[in-house]
Design goal:
The complex is a heterodimer of chains A (about 110) and B (about 110). Chain A is mostly beta strands and about 110 residues long. Chain A has no helices and 11 strands. In chain A, strands 2, 4, 5, 9, 10 and 11 form a 6-stranded mixed beta sheet that branches. Chain A has a 5-stranded antiparallel beta sheet with strand order 1-3-8-7-6, with no helix packed on it. In chain A, strand 4 and strand 5 form a beta hairpin. The N and C termini of chain A lie far apart (about 35 Å). The model of chain A has no long low-confidence stretch (mean pLDDT about 95). Chain B is built from no helices and 11 strands. In chain B, the strands form 2 sheets. In chain B, strands 2, 4, 5, 6, 9, 10 and 11 form a 7-stranded mixed beta sheet that branches. A 4-stranded antiparallel beta sheet of chain B has the order 1-3-8-7, with no helix packed on it. Classes of the chains: A mainly beta (about 110), B mainly beta (about 110). At the A-B interface, strand 4, strand 5, strand 9 and strand 10 of A face strand 4, strand 5 and strand 10 of B.
Chain lengths: ~110, ~110
C-alpha cells in the first residue's frame, strides 16, 4: 500500500467553482500534513499545513483532516485559472523527519 | 521573505562524471533535505541532515551519493559517478523545526548524457 495516495486527475473545474482535492495516507499515527502546489517545471510551494482534526482556513483555501479515516483534503474556493497546477499532499510518517509525498493531483481551472 | 537558494539551475554532465549540487538553506533553519523528481514522477526523498550528520536516507541514496555542510551556510549533494537514470530535478529543502513545513529551493535540473 502506498504511504500517500492521491487521484492523479486531471480534475477540471470551471472558474469560480470549488475545487476539492483528496488524499489518503496509510499510517494512522502520522502527525503532520501539508499541501503543496507545483507548477510545471517549478518547485513545490507550500499552501497549507494542518496538524489536528478539523478544518483550517487560509484565504480561499481550506484544509480538512480526519485522522480516524486517514484522510486529508484541500478545498479551493472561487477557483481561478492561475490555480491550475499539480497539488501535492505530503505527510510526515511516525518516527521519521522526512515528508512523504503523494503523486499529486493535476487541477485544471477552465476560464 | 527568506528563501532556499540552489545553484546551478541546470547542470549537464556526461555519464560517469561527478557533480556537486549546491544549496543555501534558510539561515535559521536546522533541518536540511534533498529530494529529487524524475520528469513526470513524484517528489522522492533522498536524505535528511541535522546537527551535522545524516539523520535519514532513502534506498535511492546509495554509495554514489553524499552530502556535506562545509560551512555555516552551504549544503551540498555530490553524485560521484553519474548514471543516465540520475537525470532529474533535484530540490533542496529546509525547515526550522521537526514538524514545520519544508521550504523548497527552485531546484537544479540535472541532465546526464
Amino acid at each position: 500500500q502506498k504511504e500517500v495516495e492521491q487521484n492523479s486527475g486531471p480534475l477540471s473545474v470551471p472558474e469560480g467553482a470549488i475545487a476539492s482535492l483528496n488524499c489518503t495516507y496509510s499510517d494512522r499515527v502520522s502527525q503532520s500534513f501539508f499541501w503543496y502546489r507545483q507548477y510545471s517545471g517549478k518547485s513545490p510551494e507550500l499552501i497549507m499545513s494542518i496538524y489536528s482534526n478539523g478544518d483550517k482556513e487560509d484565504g480561499r483555501f481550506t484544509a480538512q483532516l480526519n485522522k480516524a479515516s486517514q484522510y486529508v483534503s484541500l478545498l479551493i474556493r472561487d477557483s481561478q485559472p492561475s490555480d491550475s497546477a499539480t497539488y501535492l499532499c505530503a505527510v510526515t510518517p511516525p518516527g521519521r523527519r522526512a515528508l512523504t509525498f503523494g503523486s499529486g493531483t493535476r487541477l485544471q481551472v477552465q476560464p | 521573505e527568506p528563501e532556499v537558494t540552489q545553484t546551478p539551475s541546470h547542470q549537464v554532465t556526461q555519464m560517469g562524471q561527478e557533480v556537486i549540487l549546491r544549496c543555501v538553506p534558510i539561515s535559521n533553519h536546522l533541518y536540511f533535505y534533498w529530494y529529487r523528481q524524475i520528469l513526470g514522477q513524484k517528489v522522492e526523498f533522498l536524505v535528511s541532515f541535522y546537527n551535522n550528520e545524516i539523520s535519514e536516507k532513502s534506498e535511492i541514496f546509495d554509495d554514489q551519493f553524499s552530502v556535506e555542510r562545509p560551512d555555516g551556510s552551504n549544503f551540498t549533494l555530490k553524485i560521484r559517478s553519474t548514471k543516465l537514470e540520475d537525470s532529474a530535478m533535484y530540490f533542496c529543502a529546509s525547515r526550522g523545526g521537526e514538524e514545520s513545513p519544508l521550504h523548497f529551493g527552485n531546484g537544479t535540473r540535472l541532465t546526464v548524457t
